[in-house]
Amino acid sequence: MILHKDSEITEIKGIGIKQAQNFYKLNIFTVKDLLFHIPFRYQDTSSVFSIAEVKEKGEGTILAEIEDVQITYFKKKIVTVKVKDDTGTLRLTYFNQPYLKKSLEKGSIYLFDIKITNKSGRKNIYNSKFEKFKYNPENQIHLGKWIGIYPESRGLTSRMIRGKIKSLEKDISKIITEPLGEYLKNTDLETLPSSIEKIHFPENQKDIDIARKRLSFDEMLKIAFRIEKADIKRKSEKSKPMKIESNYLNNFIKSLPYKLTNDQNKAIEEILEDTTKKIPMNRLLNGDVGSGKTVVSAIAILNTIKNGYSSILIAPTTVLAQQHYDTFKEIFKDFNIDIEICISNKKTIKKADNKLIIGTHAILYEKELPKDLNLVIIDEQHRFGVEQREYFKKKNKLTPHYLTMTATPIPRSLTEIFFGGLDVSEIREKPKNRKEIKTFFTPFKKRNDCFDWIKKNIKESNLGNQAFIIYPLIEESEKLSAKAVVTEFRYLKEIFKGLSVEFLHGRLKAREKEKLLEDFRNKKINILISTTVIEVGIDIPDATIMVIEDAERFGLAQLHQLRGRVGRSDKESFCFVIPSSNVERNSPAEQRLRYFANHSSGFEVAEYDLQNRGPGEVYGLKQSGVPQFKVASIHDLKLLKKARILAKRILKEDNNPEYILENLFE
Length: 666
What we know:
By secondary structure, the protein is α/β, with parallel strands linked by helices. Strands 2, 3, 4, 5, 6, 7 and 8 form a seven-stranded mixed beta sheet that branches. Strands 12-13-11-14-15-10-16 form a seven-stranded parallel beta sheet, with helices on one face. α7 packs across α8, α18 (556-563) runs antiparallel to α20 and α20 packs across α21 (615-624). It is globular and about 95 Å long.
C-alpha cells in the first residue's frame, strides 16, 4: 500500500483500531502527524563499551552474548539474564516480564543499555533496554545509535513509536514535500524531508541541530504569516485621523495631583502620534501593576472627544467597569465630558455621539452605538476573544483606533510572538507617590504568627488598614488539598474575632459583589476573604495587606496581579505568600515563591515564570492563544525576524501562500 501524508495511521502495518486509540491521545491521526511527532530528547547509544568498562563506568551500551536465561517466582516473576563478552560477565534482572524466557535467545548477540544501581552495598542492573544485534547499524532501531525519546501516552512507549516511524523511513522523501521551493535558495536551511529524517534518525548531534534549525524556522514562519497578514489587513483599513488638542491635554495634565512618569509621557506621545494617521492605531499598552495606565488612556480619550468623536472603554467585569466609570467621572469632572456606563443591568445608551461609554462586553449587543466612534480601549485584552475585538470594525465603515491594555506584564519575547501585529508601549516606572510593597515568603508553620501580626496591625491603625486574604478555590475539592474560601471563612472569623470579616467569590451575583466591595471601600469590612475574582483592577486605597494562601497554586504573573491590589496609596503595604503544608523545603515551588517575594517588578516576575514554566501555564493557552512550539524557542526573536521577512516576501510574490502554510512543519 502506498502511503501519503494524509493516510490514516491505521493504514500503517501493525496499527489496529485499538492501538490507534493510544496514538489519538497524542493527537496523531495521520502519517503526517506521526512524522511530525518529534523527540523531546535523545540518548546516545552509538558508543559500545565492554562489560569491564561498563562495570567501571556504571552505565553504558554493551554488545554481549546471552549465556543463560532463568525465571524464578518470588512475589514477582523475576527473569535473570546472564550475558558475557571477552572481558567478563553480567547478570541482568527483569521484573514481571516472563515472556523474556522465550524471546531472548541463548547464544545470540544483543545490545543492552544498562545502568548499575548500588543499594545497601549490592550492585544490581534492573529492566535494561535491549535489542538483537543486526550487524548493520542502519538496521538497528532502538540501540547502537542516537535514539529519540518521544512524548508518550498510556499504552504507547517511545520504543513503539520509534518502531512505527522506522517503518516509514525509506518513504519520508515521498510522503513529505518541500513547501518553500525556490524560497529555500540562499538560506542556510535544510529541506523539510531531510530535516524530518534527521530529527528521527540522527547519526550525531550535528544532524539534530540541522533538523531543529529548519523545524524551528517553520514554526516561526507560521506565526510570521499570521502577523504579516494582520498587518496587511490593518494597512488596508481606514480610520479618521485626529489632531492633538494640546491646550486641553496640558490643562488636564496640570489638574492631576501628581507628576507623570517618563514612561507615561512616552506612551502618551506614541498613542497620540498613532491617532493622527489614516491607518487605525493598533497599540498594546503593556504596563506593570499600579504604573498608571488609566491616566494614559484618559488622555487618549480626552483628545478623541475634543476632536468631536466618541470613545468606548471595555472592561472584563461589571465591577471593574463600574470602577472605571467612577474614576473617569472624577478625573474628567472639570472637562465637560459626557460619560455613560453600559453593563448588564444598565444597558441603554442614550443619544450616542461625542461621548465616553464605559462597559463590559454587554456593549457588543447594544444596537445604538456611536456613529462617530473613533477610539476603542480594551482593558485586560487577553480576556476578550478575537471575534469580540473585530465586532466594532464590522459596525462602522471606518475602523476606530484601537488601544489594548494589560496589567499582566508580558515579556518582550511573548509580546513579539503573540502581539506581533501590534505596536507596543511599555510602562515599567511606578508613580513617585507609590511605596514598594514589602513581600514576604511565609512558611506554612508561620501562618498563625502572620495572622496575629495582621490583627495587631489593623487594630493599631484604629481600623484604618484593611486586608485581603486570597484562596484558589471556592469549596473543598476531593482531588485538591487547597484550602477553600467557604471552609476557611469560619476558621478566620474565629482567628480575627473583634474585626469585621466577609468573603467574596465568583458565584455571588454582580450586585452582591458590588455591595461587598463598596462596604470594604467604606471600611465597614476590615478583612475581605476572596478568590481571584479581585485579581484585576480592584482599587481599595486603604487595603494595605495581601495574604495569598496555597500560593504555589498560582502562577507568578497572577500572584503579581494579586499583590497589586494593595499599595495603591502612600501607605506602607505588605504581601504575604503562604504555601500549603505539603510544599517541601527548597522544592521548585518554594524557590518560585521566594523569587517572587524578592522581586517587585512584574516584568522580571513574568520573565522568570515564562522561563521556568512556559507560556502555556503562565498565560493559559486556551485563553490567550499563545502558540505551543514543539521545537522553536519562544525567546528566539532573531528567528522570528527572519521568518517575518520571508513571510512578507511570500505574501507579496506567491499566488498560493496557503499551500506553503498547510505543508510547513507544525
